[in-house]
């Protein structure tokens, strides 16, 4: 990870000076000034972040404050970490139920998002499960029921199936769609 760090202090492809259009005026250019949980900050710095990217500077705070946010940016600008940090900040770790649902267009992206969430939330004790097709449905139901992960990241088909079976509909209050233009062109 350290080999891919750029001079601005973030992972490769994360330009903190990227062009952003926003109706949110507050820009926070330091993770320490975002009033994040100490355990989350430890996870952020352990992951290799030093300074928030442009999208993170503008979108984390409104997400945490409960606003509906649409964040569009090129690949590699920090969108996944933006919503992961926002979700992790709002989790009630003591509450052992699924509190957030993230939808991703592919199994691979769902698993990638899960890894980011687990890494950033490592010091918090946050749990995250990838609910994806191609896995055993019965095992999926048992895992969701027995473990009740704080966050579920999944593909639409499997998540829809688990919702219909009533394994994912009790307590979550956060919903994130992590889709790209290609996905939307397929469903339109």
Quickly count the domains: 2
Q: What fraction, in percent, of the residue positions are helical?
A: 25-40%
**Structural class per helix/strand content?**
alpha/beta
CA-CA gap between termini: 38 Å
Mean pLDDT, all residues: 84
Q: Uncertain segments of ≥5 residues (pLDDT<50)?
A: 1-15, 181-188
Q: What is the topology, as strand order, of the major beta sheet? A: 2-3-1-4
Shape: globular
CATH class placement of the largest domain? Alpha Beta
Q: How do the helices and strands follow one another from N- to C-terminus?
A: HHHEHEHEHEH
Largest sheet: 4 strands, parallel
CATH superfamily of the largest domain: P-loop containing nucleotide triphosphate hydrolases
Catalytic activity: ATP + H2O = ADP + phosphate + H(+)
Enzyme class: hydrolase
Family: Belongs to the DEAD box helicase family.
Protein name: ATP-dependent RNA helicase
Offer a concise description of the structure.
By secondary structure, this protein is of the alpha/beta class. The protein is built from seven helices and four strands, in the order αααβαβαβαβα.
Structural description of this entry:
The protein is an alpha/beta fold. The chain folds into two domains: 1-90, Rossmann fold, CATH 3.40.50.300; 92-188, 3-Layer(aba) Sandwich (Rossmann fold), CATH 3.40.50. The protein is built from seven helices and four strands, in the order αααβαβαβαβα. It has helices at residues 38-47, 54-64, 79-90, 107-120, 137-147, 156-164, 181-187; strands spanning 100-103, 128-131, 151-154, 174-177. Helix 2 (54-64) packs parallel to helix 3 (79-90) and helix 3 crosses helix 4 (107-120). The chain starts with 37 loop residues before the first helix and ends with a helix.
